[in-house]
Design goal:
The protein has helices at residues 3-18, 23-32, 38-45, 54-66, 72-82, 86-99, 105-114, 118-131, 137-143, 149-161, 168-172, 180-190, 196-205, 211-224. It has 225 residues and is mainly α.
Length: 225
């Protein structure tokens, strides 16, 4: 049997498993798509984008962010806007970040402001960083005032990703945060902002009581050097 025939049989089995009544079979089928080319994988992924099982839908959305065709972007935007489950919407926001498609900017901003779920807003903030679009600065600075610490972490990291030196004073307010993960995200972000204030703050964070924060500061100083 040729390699092409084996591949065809594998795809046929995945397609059959995606029709299974057992959600575990459908999940394993989606995992099996990792070695299938995007052009063949996306039609299979589409079979379960409206699956009644939320983990199956979430994994299908995640797969769309990795198997990129012309259909991936519009499908993810639709799911971000319309899916009833916040976990699926969060997965869609995250997958749009993987695509690094500039067209996603407005939709991600809208979801950040309008979605009631902190998880969706978190994913949107992270993806805004992945897009590396400087226009995200005002949205992300606003997120620094969030009551959700995890949103503060995402905003700090994203401001570093977009290399927003103008936001340096805003994020330096967190240099003595009680949350070590916030301080670690700050140390990582400062490594993308090559100015004297960053170096000074990183030398301070190198002496942090948390070893992971101190290590992140050291790595950022090495990057800046």
């Amino acid at each position: 049997m040729t390699e092409q025939n084996i591949e065809k049989l594998n795809i046929e089995k995945i397609a059959a498993d995606l029709e299974s009544e057992n959600s575990r079979d459908r999940l394993l089928a989606l995992v099996s798509l990792r070695d299938v080319p995007a052009a063949e994988a996306v039609p299979l992924i589409k079979k379960v984008l409206d699956d009644e099982n939320v983990p199956v839908r979430s994994m299908a959305v995640f797969a769309l962010g990795l198997k990129v065709t012309e259909e991936s972007y519009p499908l993810l935007v639709q799911l971000l806007q319309t899916d009833s489950d916040y976990g699926v919407r969060a997965s869609a926001a995250g997958a749009l970040g993987y695509l690094e498609d500039e067209r996603a900017f407005e939709g991600l901003v809208r979801s950040f402001y309008e979605d009631e779920s902190w998880l969706v807003r978190f994913s949107a903030a992270v993806s805004l960083g992945n897009l590396k679009n400087p226009r995200a600065k005002d949205v992300l600075i606003g997120a620094l005032d969030s009551e959700e610490v995890i949103l503060q972490q995402a905003a700090i990291a994203a401001l570093g990703e977009i290399k927003s030196i103008d936001s340096l004073d805003n994020i330096l307010h967190f240099v003595d945060s009680d949350d070590w993960l916030v301080r670690q995200r700050l140390a990582d972000a400062l490594g993308n902002l090559p100015v004297a204030k960053s170096i000074s703050a990183l030398k301070y964070l190198e002496k942090d009581s948390n070893p992971q924060v101190a290590r992140a500061a050291t790595l950022s100083l090495e990057r800046l050097a």
